[in-house]
Amino acid sequence: MAHKLKIASTSLAGCFGCHMSLLDCDEKIIELLQQVELSRSPLCDIKQVADCDIGIIEGAVANSENVEVIRQFRAQCKTLVVLGACALNGGIPALRNQYSLAECLQESYIDGMGLENQLIPQDEDLPEILDQVYPVQQLVKVDYALPGCPPRADMIWQCLSALVAGQQPELSSELIRYD
Amino acid sequence: MSPEQAQTIFEDTRQRFAGAADDTRLLQYLVDIQHRYHFIPPPAIEALQQILHLTRAQIESVIDFYSFLHSDQAIRYRILFSNNITDRWAGSAAMMQRLTVALHGCEDAGIALTACSGLCDQGPSMLINGRAIGRLTPSRIDDIAALILSGVELEDWPESLFMIDNVIQRSDRQLALSCQPAAALRRAIELGPDLILQTLNESGLRGRGGAGFATATKWSLCRQASADQRFIVCNADEGEPGTFKDRLLLAQYADSVIEGMTIAALTVSARRGFIYLRGEYRFLLEPLQADLQRRREQGLLGSAILGQAGFDFDIEIHLGAGAYICGEESALIESLEGKRGIPRIRPPFPVTHGYLGQPTIVNNVETLFSVERILQKGAKWFSEIGTEQSRSSRLISISGDCEEPGVYEYPFGVSLRQIVQDCGGSDAQAVQMAGAAGTTVLARDFDRCLSFEDLATGGSFMVIGKQRSLLDMLQNFAWFFRHESCGFCTPCRIGNHLLPELLQRFAEAQATGHDLRQLKDIAETMHRSSFCGLGSSAPTALSDALEQSPEIFTAGMASSSDNPAFDLSAATREYRTITETESW
Question: pLDDT tens digits for B207-230?
Fold first, then answer.
C-alpha cells in the first residue's frame, strides 16, 4: 500500500463550526480517511502534532497557547491550510479588538451580569491572553486559505482531495461566492 | 446640557436654516453649526432632521465622514497640528509636545493631528478652530498657551499670529502678468464659445490638477452634453500634501480664477458655479466673498454680465471639512451635494453627469487661472514655451529641505536639478514629486524633467535632505492614507490599514522576508484593484522605494524567514500588567 498522507487539524479561538463543516462531507469522509492518517485533531485523541503533510487550522490566535500551537503546526506541517473566517481574518473573536484587553476582562470577569466571586483569572497553568486577536497569517506563513463562515463542505472536500492527490487546489468562483 | 439650552439650540438652528432649506447645503449647515457651538449638538441635528426631512443616520453619517465635524462634545479650542512630513521635519512634534505640556489639565482645549494644512513653506503649522497659524516657534506656542489658559476668545487673538505669507520665489510669464479685471472676459465675449474653445485648443492647456486632461476637450464634452443646466466647479480642495500654490492664487490672483470660471460659464452656458474651498483655507473665505461681491457690483457676475443679455452666472463658495478624498472630482461633487465624499463610479464622468446629475466642468484653480491668462494674451503667447506635450509653464509649491521654500513658476521641461539648485536644496537625496501619492525621484535621476511626458505633478515638490530617513517618510504617508481612505473599497481600506504596521516592523528592525513580500503584494493589489485614484496611487512612493532603495528595507529585517515577525512577549505584556496589578 502506498504511503498514507498524514493530516493534523486544530481549532484555536473558534467555534468548531469549520470542523463540523468538514464532517458535512458525509460519506466522502470515509473515502478521504482511506487515503490519509490522522495526527493531532479534535476528530481523534492525539494531543501532540507530529510531522505531517497537511495541517488544517480553524480559529484565530487569541492567547499564548494558540501561538505555541500554530508555531508547532507550521514547523511540522509541509502544507498549512487555514479554514474559515476566524483563521483567515480574525472573524468573530476579533470583534474584541475594538476594545482594550482591560475593558474585555473587566466586562467578562468583573462587571458582567450574574457573576459571583469576580476575579480576573491568572494562573501559571492558564495561557496568557494576547492584547489583540490575530489572524493566523499574521504569525506564520499560510499556504492555502478557505474562506467562509464556515467554508462549505464541498469546498473543503475539493481542496483536501486535490492536496491528497498531489494537485494544486483550485476553487471555482461558484464555490467561494457568498452573495 | 439643560432642556432649556437644548430648546434654544433647536430653535436657533431651525430659524437660521429653515428659510431656504436645501439638503445639498447640509455640509455647509454643519460647518456653520460646528463653528458656532464648537461641536454639533444633538438638538441641532434634530432641527436639521426636521427642516431637511433627513434621518438622523443620514446626518450623522455625514458628520462622521468629515474630520473637522465633531458630535462628541464642545471643545472651545480645537487644535490640529499639521502632520505633513515637511511639518515634521520642521519640528512639529516638539511644538505639539510643548503645547500639550503647557495645556495639561486644561479642559477647554483638545490637541490632535491633521493632514497637510497647506502651509508647508511656513511650517510647522496648526489649525485652531479652523484658523491657520504658521511658523510655530517655542515662543509662539507659549503665547498661544497663555491665550488659551486665560480664555481669550479666538476673535480677540492678535492678528499677527494668523499672518500667512504668500511667497512667490520665481515668476515666469503667467505670474508676472497682472490681472486686468474683465479684459479676458471681454475678449471671450468677442470670440464666442466656438473660438474660445479653439483658442484653448491651440494653447495646448492641460488640467493642472495632475491628470493633465486637455481643458478644451473637457469643456467641449460638457457643452455637447444635452441638459437643462450646466455647472462650473473650481476645485480648490488643495489637499495633496506639499501643495500650496492654489492658496497663493486664491489670495493674490482671485480675480483671474473667478474670471476663468466666468469664461467657462460663457462657453458652456452655465448659470451657477461653485468654488469648493478646503476647510483648511477658511481664512480665504471672507476675502473671496468680498472679491465675488465686488465683481457682482462691477457687473462681472450676476445677470447680464457686461451687458450681455442672457449671460447670467454666479458663484457660491462651499467649504470642505477636512477630507482629502474630496479633491477627487466625483467625491468633490458628492460633497458639494451635501453628502459623504465617496467617489462615484466613472464613467459616466462629471463632464456629462456631475453636480445633480448635470454636465459639470471641474477644473483646478490653476487651470482656471491659466484660462484667464490665455484669453488675455492669446494662445500663441501661452504656448510658445514648454515642451511638445506640455505647453507653457506651471506653478509648483516647493517645501522641505531647501533654503527658499515657496511658489515657483517654471516652463515645462525644466530639469529637477535646476529646480533643486534654484531653491537651495543642494543637500537633497531625493525629491517627492506630486505629494504623498506621487513618485520619489532620487538625486541620481535629477536630470529628469517636469512635464506630462516625464514627471507630472499636481504642484507638490518636497525636497528630501540627506539627513532624512526615507522609511520615516513612507510611514508618514502610510498613516496619512490610512486616515484618508474613504473606506468604500477593500483594497484601499484594508491595504492602507495594513501598511503602517508592516512598515513599523521595518522601523524596529524586526521585519522578516514574509513582511517584505507582504509589502510588495499589498502595494501591487492596491495599484491594480482600488476603486479610485486614491487607493491606486497611495503606495506609489512605497513601490518606488522597494525598487530604487531596497537597502532601507533590508536594514529593517531581522531574518529572511517565511513567517511574519511576531513578538509574543509584547503581545502578552498588557495581560501581565493587568493581572499583576490586580488587587484581590
Answer: 998 889 999 999 999 999 999 899
Quote the ipTM score: 0.89
- CB A139 to CB B576 under 8 A? no
Q: Are B37 and B44 in contact (CB under 8 A)?
A: yes
Entry field: residues in chain B: 584
List Cβ neighbours of B176 (8 Å cut-off, separation of 6 or more).
none
Q: What would the pLDDT profile of B132-160 be if each residue is shown by its tens digit?
A: 999 999 999 999 999 999 999 999 999 99
Lowest mean pLDDT among B16-20, B317-321, B329-333, B504-508: B16-20
* Among candidates B562, B572, B578 on the partner chain, residue whose Cβ is nearest the Cβ of A105: B578
pLDDT (0 to 100) of residue A39:
87
Please check whether residues B137 and B256 belong to one and the same domain: no
CB contact under 8 A, B574 and A137: no
Mean pLDDT of A24-51: 86
Q: Does the CB of B4 have a partner CB in chain A at under 8 Å?
A: no
Tell me the nearest-neighbour CA distance from A131 into chain B, angstroms: 5
Residue B553 maps to a domain: no
Domain housing B497? 477-543
Give the CA angle between residues B135, B70, B5 to the nearest 5°: 120
Tell me which of B516, B560, B572, B577 to substitute to probe the interface with A (most A C-beta atoms closer than 10 Å).
B572
Q: Are B433 and B481 contained in the same domain? A: no
- B504-549 confidence digits (pLDDT tens): 999 999 999 999 999 999 999 999 999 998 999 999 999 999 999 9
Q: Where are the alpha helices (DSSP H) in B434-539?
A: 470-484, 490-507, 513-529, 533-537
Same domain, B248 and B133: no
Region B58-73: mean pLDDT is 95
- Predicted confidence band of residue A44 (pLDDT cuts 50, 70, 90): confident
pTM over 0.90: no
Inter-chain contacts counted by CB atoms under 8 A, chains A and B: 48
pLDDT, mean of residues B274-300: 97
Decide if A117 touches B, using CB distance below 8 A.
no
The residue of chain A nearest to residue B517, with distances taken between CA atoms, is: A141
| Cβ–Cβ below 8 Å for B574 and A102 | yes
Task: Please answer yes or no on whether B576 and A128 come within 8 Å at the CB atom.
Answer: yes
- Phi, psi dihedrals of residue B303, rounded to the nearest 5°: -100, 150
> Which residues of B fall within a CB distance of 8 Å from A102?
574, 578
Query: If phi over 0 gives left and psi between -120 and 50 gives alpha, with beta otherwise, what is residue B357?
Result: left
Closest by CA to A60, choosing from A129, A162, A152, is A129
Interface with chain B: mutation pick from A128, A132, A139, highest number of B CBs within 10 Å = A128
To the nearest whole number, what is the mean pLDDT of chain B?
95
* Strands of B303-427, DSSP E: 314-319, 360-364, 393-400, 406-411
> Which candidate in B501, B518, B522, B578 is best for mutational testing of the A interface (most A CBs within 10 A)?
B578
Strand order in the sheet with A5-11: A36-38, A5-11, A52-58, A77-83, A144-146
Verify that B317 and B224 share a domain, yes or no: yes
Residue B584 is predicted with a pLDDT of 43
Chain B residues with CB-CB distance to A178 below 8 A: none
Whether the pLDDT of residue A1 is over 60: the answer is no
What kind of architecture, by CATH, is found in domain A5-94+133-164? 3-Layer(aba) Sandwich (3.40)
